[in-house]
């Protein structure tokens, strides 16, 4: 595989820092550009993030002295010096839409962690194990944008990456009908640490703006189909969600209740989870977990602190599968929100696109 030069737009933020660490020794991707707002532009990466570096490993040596570029003003320069960019910025939705389209129109593909384009019908929203085929819509998007190379591809919201991967492999045979989910979401999902979010200690906050809508609606795009140059959302399964912020640094947990068209046995569900492999595993993408879905038989597992880093933080942990009195089954799932749920999911999506030739 040839090596691609990449840029990180929003490199100073929580997700941007995660990209910087994940790409440090990446076999296919080489970080050539770091960009952020005008507040950071012109400073070195170390000067900018030194005091707010939130990762457990140090700032990558090769990036420390790299001078941050202005993500809005240097588009042409950035687009011409990289093969594609990762984008994770904290801006208004319409500003993000415009920024990402500007990069795409400068023939620079954008792999986005932002929500702005998740509902644009010709922008694929991909979990590479589940709906890798949605990247086929890129051809139609390029036509709309009038580009040869440029396009936008997004990853989904972090909360649903804990429960959708467990439900999706059950649907074809058993028909997933109704899902009730409560998520218990880590503070890094709000770009916070315990130092910057002291009010979460000894507390639960029962509201995360916009999260319940995303948790209910985004799965329907994942379940959708490419038809006539757009992704047509599925109308099932039906999701209802409550999302709570809890005092956990990393790792979103979901408590899931599910009703099927054809109720399977518990053994049949466990077998589907154990054997499930997606395109990411078939293509042996560098960031793909070997085993996507892990099932823990112990009653007190999975736990965020113990299992969020499983397989580089890219695997999904499940447990407590049992029959329910109102739904067919209930179970618990966990995924790392800034790895699988954010930067890691973005890197895996970029690997899928690289393997399929979309950056050539
Ligand atoms: N945290 C998560 O777990 C998570 C998960 C999934 C998706 N996301 C999404 O990822 C995005 C970034 O989240 P985050 O938690 O990393 O946010 P963050 O820590 O607040 O970082 C925001 C980044 O955006 C940059 N930025 C702000 N205004 C800008 C502008 N006008 N032009 C260019 N860059 C600008 C900032 O640069 P400066 O430092 O120069 O201000 C910084 O690099 C958001 O859309 C968020 O919804 C986050």
Layout of strands and helices, then pairs:
Layout: E1 4-9, H1 14-22, E2 29-36, H2 45-49, H3 61-64, E3 69-70, H4 75-81, E4 84-87, H5 93-105, E5 110-112, H6 138-145, E6 152-154, H7 160-174, E7 176-185, H8 211-222, E8 225-227, E9 230-232, E10 238-245, E11 252-260, H9 266-275, H10 279-282, E12 293-296, H11 304-307, H12 310-313, E13 316-323, E14 329-335, H13 339-355
Parallel strand pairs: 1-2, 1-4, 2-3, 4-5, 5-6, 7-10, 12-13
Antiparallel strand pairs: 7-11, 8-9, 11-14, 13-14
NADP nicotinamide-adenine-dinucleotide phosphate is lined by residues 10-16, 36-37, 39-40, 71-72, 88-91, 113-115, 158, 188-189, 191, 337-338, 341-342.
Number of domains: 2
Biggest sheet descriptor:
6 strands, parallel
Number of strands: 14
| Helix and strand sequence | EHEHHEHEHEHEHEHEEEEHHEHHEEH
Q: CATH top level of the largest domain?
A: Alpha Beta
User: What percent of the residues sit in helical stretches (DSSP H or I)?
Assistant: 25-40%
Mean pLDDT: 97
Which strand order do you get reading across the main beta sheet? 3-2-1-4-5-6
| Measured distance between first and last alpha carbons | 11 Å
- Unreliable sequence segments: none
Folded structure, characterized:
By secondary structure, the chain is an alpha/beta fold. It has two domains: 4-157 and 342-355, Rossmann fold; 160-336, Dihydrodipicolinate Reductase, domain 2. The chain has 13 helices and 14 strands. The radius of gyration is 20 Å and the shape is globular. The N and C termini lie close together (11 Å).
């Amino acid at each position: 595989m040839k090596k691609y030069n990449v840029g990180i737009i929003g490199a100073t933020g929580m997700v941007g820092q995660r990209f910087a660490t994940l790409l440090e020794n990446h076999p296919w991707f080489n970080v050539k550009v770091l960009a952020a707002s005008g507040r950071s532009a012109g400073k070195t990466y170390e000067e900018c993030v030194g005091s707010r570096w939130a990762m457990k490993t140090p700032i990558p040596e090769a990036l420390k002295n790299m001078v941050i570029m202005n993500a809005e003003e240097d588009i042409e320069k950035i687009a011409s010096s990289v093969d594609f960019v990762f984008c994770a910025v904290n801006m208004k939705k319409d500003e993000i839409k415009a920024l990402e389209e500007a990069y795409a129109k400068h023939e620079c593909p954008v792999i986005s962690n932002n929500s702005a384009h998740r509902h644009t019908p010709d922008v694929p929203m991909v979990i590479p194990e589940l709906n890798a085929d949605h990247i086929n819509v890129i051809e139609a998007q390029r036509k709309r944008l009038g580009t040869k190379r440029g396009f936008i591809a997004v990853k989904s919201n972090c909360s649903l990456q804990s429960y959708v991967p467990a439900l999706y492999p059950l649907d074809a045979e058993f028909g997933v009908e109704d899902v009730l989910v409560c998520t218990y979401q880590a503070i890094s999902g709000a770009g916070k640490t315990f130092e910057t979010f002291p009010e979460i200690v000894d507390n639960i906050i029962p509201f995360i703006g916009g999260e319940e809508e995303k948790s209910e609606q985004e799965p329907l795009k994942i379940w959708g189909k490419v038809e006539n140059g757009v992704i047509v959302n599925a109308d099932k399964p039906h999701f209802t969600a409550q999302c709570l912020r809890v005092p956990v640094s990393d790792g979103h947990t979901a408590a899931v209740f599910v009703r099927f068209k054809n109720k399977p046995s518990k053994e049949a569900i466990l077998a589907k989870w154990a054997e499930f492999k997606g395109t990411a595993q078939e293509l042996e993408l560098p960031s793909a977990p070997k085993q996507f879905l892990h099932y823990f038989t112990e009653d007190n597992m999975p736990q965020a602190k113990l299992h969020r880093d499983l397989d580089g933080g890219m695997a999904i942990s499940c447990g407590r599968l049992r029959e329910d009195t109102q739904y067919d089954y209930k179970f618990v799932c966990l995924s790392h929100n800034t790895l699988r749920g954010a930067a890691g999911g973005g890197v895996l999506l970029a690997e899928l696109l690289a393997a399929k030739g979309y950056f050539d």
